Structures are given as C-alpha cells and as structure tokens.
Amino acid sequence: MPEVAQIQYGRLDNVLAIKVEGPCTAVQAARVQRLLHEYMTASIAEIYFDLSRACYMDSSFAGRLLSLALRNREEAGPRICLYGMPTAVEDALRKMHVLHFFHVEAGIPAAISEWMPFSARDTELDELAELVIEAHEKLMEADPRNAETFGRVVEGLREHLQPPSE
Q1: How many helices (H) and strands (E) does the chain have?
Q2: pLDDT-based confidence at 1, cuts 50/70/90?
Q3: Number of domains in the chain
Q4: pLDDT at 143 over 60
Q5: Does residue 126 form part of some domain?
Q6: What's the pLDDT score for residue 72?
C-alpha cells in the first residue's frame, strides 16, 4: 500500500470514479470535496470510490463520505459506492457503525481507461477544522454510540476555533 496520499479520478458516461491511495485522512477528505466541487455535474448517477490502495481510513474521511452519501440520498443525488476496501478500511467503517450507509460493490461497472491525478491547494487549518467538526457531527448523528468517542473531538476543535475573548 502506498504511504503517500494520492487521488486520481476518471469518468465514463454517468459514472465518476475516485481512486484514493494511501491514508484516507481529513486532508484527503478536503481534496475529495474540492474534486467533487470541480467535476460534479447533473449527469453523474454514481460515484465510485476505489479504496483498494487505501492503507487506512480515519474518522474525518469516513464522516465526510457519510455526509456525502446521506445528502445524496436525501436529495436524490448520485449513489455513493465503495469498492476494493482493504480489511482495515472496512473494519474502521464497521467500528464507526456506518458501513451500512454505503453501497459496497465488487468493482466498478464501467471500464475507466484514463485516470487523471487530482491535486489541490493545501487546506487552511481553520477550514480543515470545520471539515473535521462536520464529519464527526455526522458520525454522531448516524449512530449515538459514536458520541462518546467523537464528542470530545468536536468540543476541542470548537474551542480552538472560537476567537480569544478580550
């Protein structure tokens, strides 16, 4: 598994595929968010995340994927599919009690012949903190058992983001 985080994407007809390699972290979640903002069109019916080369997934990345899946479900947006998950990634999603929110597929239905690298500017610290807060709030909404673990993350980051009192 690659230790360096990389994102590639490909498109064929109404399918957008995103390949995440290396650690799936908050920084990668921010990059995926930017990629979707740039390349998402109304014609996309499915978004496939190829996680076959992901070495692990942290709660920020999981929460961001969950947020996307739930929003798309509510708004009749593209179906979010995960495939090629290593055991460590699947176990992480199961431990966070959110695996059942995703369509888990054996592979991508369309043969994407051209994968393009995606690079984005670095995310500002406050922007990243907001993403982490939103991701963890979504994990807590999805399953109350997550509140004990992730509530402290949200509280700590909210304190960090508050302007100093005079």
Answers
A1: 5, 7
A2: low
A3: 1
A4: yes
A5: no
A6: 87
HSE (side-chain half, CA atoms, 13 Å) at 96: 28
Tokens for 120?
Answer: 């984005």
Quote the domain boundaries for residue 74: 6-120
3-class secondary-structure state, position 104: strand
Using DSSP, state whether 59 is helix, strand or coil. Answer: helix
Asked if the structure places residue 32 within a domain, the reply is: yes
Distance CA 8, CA 116 (A): 5
pLDDT band at 2 (very low <50, low <70, confident <90, very high): low
CATH code (residue 97): 3.30.750.24
Q: What are the tokens at 77?
A: 């947006």
pLDDT band at 74 (very low <50, low <70, confident <90, very high): confident
Report whether 129 contacts 30 (CB < 8 A): no
Residue 120 has pLDDT above 80, yes or no: no
| Distance in angstroms (rounded) separating the CA atoms of residues 92 and 98 | 9
In a domain, residue 161? The reply is no
